[in-house]
Amino acid sequence: MKRWGFKIFRKFKRQNVYAPMDGEIVLLSEVPDPVFSQKMMGEGIAMIPTDGRVHAPVNGKVIQIAPTKHAVGMRADDGTEILIHVGLETVSLQGKGFKVKVSVGETVSVGDLLMEFDLAYIRTHAKSLVSPIVITNSRNRDQKYTLTKEKEGKMGETVIMTIK
Q1: Using an 8 Å Cβ cutoff, are 93 and 44 in contact?
Q2: Rounded distance between C-alpha atoms, residue 154 and residue 49, angstroms
Q3: Class for domain 13-163, per CATH?
Q4: Contacts of 56 (CB under 8 A, 6+ apart)
Q5: Along the 164 residues of the chain, how does pLDDT read in single tens digits?
Q6: What region holds the PTS EIIA type-1 domain (predicted)?
């Protein structure tokens, strides 16, 4: 006797992406950088942080840390790849103002601290504080991305995006 029903439910599993920081939530289309606003890197959302910490938005593994420490890439347990990019044109800061708290290959859970950054320094020396959270493999996956309607996000509590 075959069991058909369970495979149907597994296909439509939901992945919640939680706010990786406290702050204002903005649409990716409002990010003042065409690489992000035109979704060249993938689907996503952005936040304007109110403190200098970035936490894991999903359960998964750290797969990339930018040499200039301004961005962290993760692969969620379901295979979704997420890039958290703090500020705009922060690569030019050459790592100044950033302290990464994880290593590539490390397994993390929602809310684990990934990095700290000097909010005042980034505000003064970067183009913008707006921080894109992008699904870098969204073009390769047949999924639906639902963005929150919330305007403020609380780290680890606010679901900023749901993936089905």
Answers
A1: no
A2: 10
A3: mainly beta
A4: 20, 74, 108, 109, 110, 111, 112, 114
A5: 444 444 444 455 789 999 999 999 999 999 999 999 999 999 999 999 999 999 999 999 999 999 999 999 999 999 999 999 999 999 999 999 999 999 999 999 999 999 999 999 999 999 999 999 999 999 998 899 999 999 999 999 999 999 99
A6: 33-137
Contact 96, 121 (CB under 8 A): yes
| Residue appearing with tokens 């952005």 | 46
User: Encoding tokens for residue 35?
Assistant: 């690489």
Q: Measure the CA–CA gap between 104 and 108, rounded to whole angstroms.
A: 11
Q: Check if the beta carbon of residue 21 is closer than 8 Å to that of residue 53.
A: yes
Q: What is the DSSP string of 29-42?
A: GGSSSHHHHTTSS-
* Residues with catalytic roles: 85
**Residue 5 parent element (H or E):** helix 5-11
- Among 95, 96, 99, 88, which residue's Cα sits nearest to residue 67? 95
Tokens linked to 100:
């990464």
Rounded to an integer, what distance in angstroms lies between the CA atom of residue 15 and that of residue 78?
7
CB-side exposure of 74: number of CA atoms within 13 Å?
Answer: 28
What are the sequence ranges of the domains in the chain? 13-163
